[in-house]
Amino acid sequence: MKKYEIMFIVKSTQESNDIKTSAEFMKNIITDNKGKVVEFNELGEKKLAYSIKKEISGYYYVMIVEAGNEAINELNRKASINENILRHLIIRLDEE
Known about the structure:
There is one protein chain. 31% of the residues lie in helices and 50% in strands. It has helices at residues 16-32, 69-81, and strands spanning 2-11, 36-52, 55-67, 85-92. The two termini are 14 Å apart. It has a single domain, classed as Alpha-Beta Plaits.
């Protein structure tokens, strides 16, 4: 399994429970596809540099995961179609 850093932004105009549910949704995609969430950090609400889908702020999350290609592809697919996720970025970490 490879190591990845995944950053995603959740809409801040939702209820706080819905924001946490969206974050858990992203974690569950990895664990349901035989991956492992090594680290999960909530960076809090931040103002966006430019508006995305008419949103001016969002809740930032960063997680470090160990997962196979299937889990990463599924996360990328579901994050793209989820309306509550404004942006996501997946970076493969080099092994040292």
